[in-house]
Automatic annotation (TrEMBL):
Membrane topology label: Multi-pass membrane protein
Key words, A-Z: Cell membrane, Membrane, Transmembrane, Transmembrane helix
Name this polypeptide is given: Transmembrane permease
Localization per record: Cell membrane
All residue ranges annotated as the EamA domain in the record: 10-140, 156-292
A GO term from the CC aspect: plasma membrane
Length: 310
């Protein structure tokens, strides 16, 4: 029972961390830092942390074989490098609520990727879910936002977020076998190193050009939040909780993330919830619910379907 409470606490904290990011990042971008500069600080900080943690926790563990090394390479490129570059670029252009809603399509991407890469069967419910979720995402991307003056490039930002969710969904399918085979710090250390090699060339100039001397305490706190809480702590808690949480429980927290993101964004005055967005959210939620329905015996759900996080 005590462990169950810890799982709920870990999942809720991870969900809250991700939900708050959509609004807190707006304080940083673009007034104090540009998107790629933030990503550079995130991946460098996490790379150093997980490299040290790996040496302390599993010094003899090593990813072996051509197949696993190629898998780790792709996970680092798609799940860390491209994922984070696209996420912060998209969030810089679009609204917090739109970004948080589009992020929830990752489970749909996982189902499609599993069907293509792992030859998983797509049931009628899941096919319907893919179509409904895709319709909601398309409506959200193509609808002219109410705050068009505030977010003139919202459509481009929404496309970036959609690509971000797509790469992350693909990453979830590919990283699962590595997590089962090796120590988590071994996998995270490798993929964050690869992610840093991808992201840093895009962002080192922005990171160095940032005027850190004029950061007020609030902005320093948000930078620390992005590096430690959003990247390091969230990955650690998420990986621990996924060992014990059921798919149904994970599904609850997938739906909770955009709800919290909306509440935080509205409370902080970063965004407004319109009827259009509410309708698009319903379509996406219904799509995710359909693809997350447990298939009949003999057709297990793809690993990671309900494990989508930023």
């Amino acid at each position: 029972m005590k462990n169950q409470y810890r799982v709920h606490a870990a999942l809720f904290l991870v969900t809250l961390i991700y939900a708050a990011t959509y609004s807190l990042a707006k304080d940083l971008m673009p007034a104090y830092m540009h998107p790629f500069g933030i990503v550079t600080l995130r991946v460098l900080g996490a790379s150093i942390f997980f490299a040290v943690a790996k040496q302390l926790a599993a010094p003899q563990d090593k990813i072996q074989g051509r197949a696993d090394n190629l898998r780790a390479l792709f996970c680092g490129v798609s799940g860390i490098g491209l994922n984070q570059l696209l996420f912060f670029s998209g969030l810089n252009y679009t609204s917090p609520i739109s970004a948080s809603l589009l992020q929830t399509i990752s489970p749909i991407v996982v189902v499609v990727a599993s069907a293509v890469l792992l030859r998983e069967k797509i049931t009628l419910y899941r096919l319907l879910g893919i179509l409904v979720g895709a319709g909601g995402a398309a409506a959200l991307i193509l609808t002219r936002p109410a705050q068009a003056a505030v977010y003139p490039h919202a459509t481009l930002g929404n496309i970036y977020i959609l690509l971000n969710a797509t790469f992350f969904g693909l990453y979830l399918v590919l990283v699962a076998p590595l997590m089962r085979k090796y120590h988590p710090f071994t996998v995270l250390g490798r993929i964050f190193l690869i992610g840093a090699l991808v992201a840093v060339p895009f962002g080192w100039r922005e990171a160095l050009a940032t005027d850190y001397a004029h950061f007020p305490p609030k902005i320093w706190a948000e930078v620390l939040y992005m590096v430690f809480f959003l990247t390091i702590l969230a990955y650690l808690l998420n990986n621990w909780a996924l060992k014990y949480a059921s798919p149904a429980l994970l599904g609850v927290y997938i739906y909770l993330q955009p709800v919290l993101a909306v509440l935080i964004a509205v409370a902080l005055g970063k965004d407004t919830l319109t009827w259009d967005k509410a309708g698009q959210a319903v379509l996406i939620f219904v799509g995710v619910w359909l693809v997350s329905k447990k298939p009949k015996a003999g057709a297990p759900a793809p690993t990671g379907v309900l494990e989508a996080q930023d």
